[in-house]
Amino acid sequence: MFGNGRQREAGVLVEDYADRVRTAAGHLTRLLADGGTRVDNPADEPVAPGDDRPIELRPDAEVVRIGSDPARGVCTAAVDGGSACLVNGRSFWVVAYRAGTIWHRDRATVREERDQLVLRTLNQTDAKAEYAHALAAAGVVRGRELADLGGVVDVLRELAEWERARQAVAEAGPGDLVLVDGSLHPGPYMPAAVVRPVHELALERGVDLVGVTKASKLRWGRYAPLVLRVRRRAEAEVGPDARWLLRVTDDADAAGTTWRSEVYVARLARRGAYAFRVDAVRGHRSAEELFAVLAGLSDDPAFLGYPYPLARVHQVVSLPGHLLADLRRDLREALLREGLAEDDVDLVLRDFHLTLNA
Amino acid sequence: MPDQHPGYKGRIFGRSVLDVRFRAFYGEDLFLGELLVGTDGERGRRYLFRVTDVAYGSESSDDGWAERTAGGLMAMDQVGEPTGMRDVERRLYKVAKVSSLGYLGADRSFHKPKSLPAQFGEVTAPTQADLEFLRERMGDVEIGRLRSGEDTIDLPVGIRGETLPSHVGVFATTGMGKSNLMKVLAGQLLAAHGRYALLLFDPHGEYLNGGGPPRKGLADHPLAPERLRVYSPSPRPGQGNLLRLSLAELSVDDLRTAWKFTVPQSEALESAAAHLGEKGEWLVRLAEEEPEELKDGSELGRYALATIQVLARRAKRIVRLPLMTSDPSQSLTGKVLDDLADGKVVLIDTSGLEAVEETLVASLLTRSLLEERTDAYRSDRERFGRLPRTLVALEEAQRVLTRLDDAEFNVFPRLAREGRKFNVGLCAVTQQPKLIDAELLSQFNTYFVLGLADERDRSILRSSSKQDLSDLGPEIQTLMPGEALVTNPEAPFALPSKVHYYEDWLQTLPEPEAARPRPVGAMQGFYD
């Protein structure tokens, strides 16, 4: 369409470009200033059990200052997973994932465990079967079908993570912590039947089970990011250099159920750049005590305000670029050994978007 | 830091034959100049390395990680919250850059570094056996112990006395240990039983007595009574001979070495020496007669009065020096040369003299020594062969070694260029090697490099040394007092060393054997 660079520039620099940018900025600013009280429950990030109805966050919900507790002798397990889609053929996928656990005590990681890398080639039918199989392995019957089969790797990884979380809770002693990357709540493809037994096991063993969501989609009123709004309010109330928590859910949200997972927004270091959604199934600690321990774990200068064990386990299980490059190379060689012509291998492995974007 | 076997330092991961890199645990305390060994199990070789730089490393692939983490620490500092890295040894490490000095083959022979050690080979501290090959290359003039970083290894470092005529340079900023090194060197030559001689000029009066308690000097050396000779214009009772030099011995060249003369002044000086009388009379006349009279009544008439006045002023200064005498029979030059021929350490105390006067004295004595040895070489090879190798040590040597071209009249460049042939070496002591002519520096086979603050000084040494010092700039810069690098063609590489502390070293010396009492009646009949 565009014959040369000048024409392409002309295509981008439309006359009302500046107006459009101003309009976008104004819209975002109004969103952030929204004064509502309703916390929306995105379908993929629920805050309440069972459904995705919104909850009310009272305007007077208290921002509570928290301390920092080094929690000497307390063991913290952290669970995370890493995954990647090596080949996306739209009708088939080659996916890789793994989960792992690290154990941290007295400022040092004392044990690291990592599952062997799982490599699966899935087509539409395989993906559904694999999902059902993974749920069955967790003792759960599939309730709904995956809508986006391309995202099957994320679901498989999450299931592996929950299995790791279950094992960690089972191994942890009373007063220990098990940290999970992400929400503790069920999602559209993560049945409550997978999650709830882990919560119950934690309660039974007196273990604090905590989920930290790095990028929460929870929203306030009309799509204002909840964490940002809470942080702004907290800074106004307790100052910019404070650790604090604000409980988003209250006991009424789980009234009449055995559901004990609470949702908070918290800032875990006085100079941390971020606040996070934190879910907690508390063992024996009060919220203030638990968050003080979390704050004590969040003082590593490289990850200020984020529990260090979660950062560590992320590094243990993530699939770095060089590993993925190795996997793709091995896959290519295996395909050639299988007798596939080189041109066909290129077609299978090439993503035309990369060609377009080059 | 995980438990490893003692001496374990890390693993090689790169990079080339002359630029090897290894990874070390974060807690490993690596020092510039530290000597290490890289094990090549594949070929049964042990590579000797010298640490030339140490850098930070982290498991993070993000370039900005360390900077951000420092910011995190500072942020916590600002709010008064103590913190620190967790899992430090897992996340941080060190990368050491080492130069390969060579390798020991399976037969323990040392080879120059021409091949790459095995990748991922283990790096360890050297064992005694790894360095044993050095022992036979260390000479009989020991100045200290081998140093590895900040540790001292029980292996002597020194030079062969035979190489003294190949000239020695001692380079250091003030306070880095020049004087101590010179005392140790002189002390070793005192103990050499006459194999070597040393003519040592002492402009600061610190070599004889160390400059005062608790320092010690050459006078405290147990062999001083036997082998040290001291000459001073004003000797303390019992501590030396009165230095007397004859005006007749001074040459035009000595004056030109001590002072800068313009071309007309130089020509007038030559004329004065040629026409105003022999055996020093020309100097006396220049000093005592009025310049106007000299201009009107002598061969100096063709020179400007101002030129003659300059010569007259300088001649007056020389003639009035208490150590100069117009009576040639009182000169002690001959005695100094005899002492040197006898393998003594001769200390000339010039501390009471001004710089030009000191240069004048040094020039006269050095020239006399060189002429004597040249004569012996040319006329009596047998006698020449018996003369000890002799070193002339001069402080602030840059004053007289600025230009090689000065060798035409200046004895010191001439000594640097020709002395080796006549078994006389120059020991140039300076804190400003950059002021010494590069070609002259290249004549020096042995360098003792102590701490040097000025990059230009380090640079000229790197370019002129007999060993490759190109990677050692940071190490020279960070040398502590008493730490030195010794380069010498005999050594396989620039040797890091810790110079003996003279006062401590004296304590280790054995007392000389007491003179045996004469047998009764031995002198009978001599004084009848």
CATH superfamily of the largest domain in chain B: P-loop containing nucleotide triphosphate hydrolases
Q: Classify the fold: give the CATH topology of the largest domain in chain A.
A: archaeoglobus fulgidus dsm 4304 fold
| Major sheet of chain B | 12 strands, mixed
Uncertain runs of chain B with pLDDT below 50, 5 residues or more?
none
Query: Proportion of β residues of chain A?
Result: 15-25%
Separate helix tally of chain B: 18
Order of helices and strands of chain A: HHEEEEEEEHHEHEEEHEEEHHHHH
Count of separate DSSP helical elements of chain A: 11
Total beta strand runs of chain B: 21
Identify the overall geometry of chain A. Answer: globular
CATH topology of the largest domain in chain B: Rossmann fold
- Global structural class of chain A: alpha+beta
Structure description:
The complex is a heterodimer of chains A (358) and B (528). Chain A contains eleven helices and 14 strands. Chain A is globular, with a radius of gyration of 23 Å. In chain A, a hairpin with a 3-residue loop joins strand 4 (75-88) and strand 5 (92-105). Chain A folds into two domains: 40-317, archaeoglobus fulgidus dsm 4304 fold (2-Layer Sandwich), CATH 3.30.2170; 321-357, no CATH class. In chain A, the strands form two sheets. In chain A, strands 3, 4, 5, 6, 7, 8, 9, 12, 13 and 14 form a ten-stranded mixed beta sheet that branches. In chain A, 38% of the residues lie in helices and 22% in strands. By secondary structure, chain A is an alpha+beta fold. In chain A, helix 9 (321-337) runs antiparallel to helix 10 (342-349). By secondary structure, chain B is of the alpha/beta class. Chain B has three domains: 8-136, no CATH class; 160-243 and 332-453, P-loop containing nucleotide triphosphate hydrolases (Rossmann fold, 3-Layer(aba) Sandwich), CATH 3.40.50.300; 249-319. Chain B contains 18 helices and 21 strands. A twelve-stranded mixed beta sheet of chain B has the order 9-8-21-20-19-10-18-17-11-16-12-13. In chain B, a hairpin with a 2-residue loop joins strand 1 and strand 2. Chain B is elongated. The termini of chain B are far apart. The interface between A and B is medium-sized, with 19 and 22 residues.
